[in-house]
Design brief:
Shape of chain A: globular
Radius of gyration of chain B: 13 Å
Order of helices and strands of chain B: EEHEHHEHEH
Structural class of chain A: alpha+beta
Protein name (chain A): ATP-binding protein
Largest sheet of chain B: 5 strands, mixed
Largest sheet of chain A: 5 strands, antiparallel
Strand content of chain B: 25-35%
Distance between the termini of chain B: 31 Å
Oligomer: heterodimer
CATH superfamily of chain B: STAS domain
CATH class of chain B: Alpha Beta
CATH superfamily of chain A: Histidine kinase-like ATPase, C-terminal domain
Pfam families (chain A): HATPase_c_2
Number of domains of chain B: 1
Strand order of the largest sheet of chain B: 1-2-3-4-5
CATH architecture of chain B: 2-Layer Sandwich
Shape of chain B: globular
Number of helices of chain B: 5
Number of strands of chain A: 5
Helix content of chain A: 25-40%
Distance between the termini of chain A: 15 Å
Keywords (chain A): ATP-binding, Kinase, Nucleotide-binding, Serine/threonine-protein kinase, Transferase
GO molecular function (chain A): ATP binding; protein histidine kinase activity
EC number (chain A): 2.7.13.3
Chain lengths: ~140, ~110
């Protein structure tokens, strides 16, 4: 099954993005803890894009699609037209660094990497595409 | 959306979280903990029994106060977390850096 959602680049819309993902995953009989982890990873990527690539400008949008292959995997595609940013090119801080510097950011991408089985960012002159893939065993 | 309420029970400050802590609402959690530290509370309990979601923004708030807790002799314990919320702390191993208990009674005994 393929599902689509479009959201303005506002942090307040993260909740509706999460609801879109969890309501569709629930149709596919996944455990609550697993649904929450998948929702979390996509929420983290969307929050990063909204804040860092779009400066929380609600006139701009994120397009999200999710493809659920039963008993196999779920694939998310997040498309935006902001400044291309590939977090995979940035070194993530260690937990010790985060505690010492008292920085509140930096944990999101670590979570995404731990949760997802495949992460890909690509950009061309028109758009940026982030692909997140999670293997599921229903 | 998160509702945060403070309650004093004996010499404990109980901060109750009701709702979701994400990139949009984590600022309220930050403010609540900042006030607890500034008001010199040394025994802080965080009631997460009505916390339905936490993202890295919320985890980052707790992480950013670990040094203050250590240097100022403050102890903060979370309790009542649902399985899915506790799992988020566990993914990063934060359950080793922050104390998490099942119940308020259990948490109080650790002070």
């Amino acid at each position: 099954m393929n599902y689509h959602f479009k959201a303005p680049c506002s942090k307040k819309k993260l909740r509706s993005i999460r609801e879109f993902i969890s309501s569709n995953l629930k149709k596919h009989a996944l455990a609550d803890v697993e649904i929450n982890m998948i929702v979390l990873a996509v929420d983290e990527v969307c929050a990063n894009l909204i804040i860092h690539s779009h400066n929380c400008d609600p006139e701009e949008t994120l397009e999200l699609s999710m493809l659920i292959e039963d008993n196999k995997r779920v694939i998310f595609k997040i498309i935006d037209r902001g400044e291309g940013f590939n977090p995979l090119n940035h070194k993530e801080p260690s937990l010790e660094e985060i505690i010492q510097t008292k920085k509140k950011g930096g944990l999101g991408l670590i979570l995404v990497k731990k949760i997802m089985d495949h992460i890909e960012f690509k950009s061309d002159s028109k758009k940026n595409v982030c692909i997140l893939q999670k293997n599921i065993g229903i | 959306m998160i509702d945060i309420s403070n309650n004093i029970e004996d010499d404990f400050l109980v901060i109750s979280l009701d709702g979701e802590v994400d990139a949009s609402s984590s600022i309220h959690l930050d403010k609540a903990i900042d006030e607890a530290v500034k008001n010199n509370h040394k025994k802080i309990l965080v009631d997460g029994s009505k916390l339905s979601y936490i993202s890295s923004a919320g985890l980052g708030v707790f992480m950013s106060y670990i040094q203050d807790f250590d240097s100022q002799g403050i102890k903060l314990i979370l309790f009542g977390l649902s399985e899915k919320v506790k799992n988020v702390f566990q993914i990063l191993g934060l359950d080793q850096l922050l104390k998490i208990c099942e119940s308020k009674e259990e948490a109080k005994q650790l002070f």
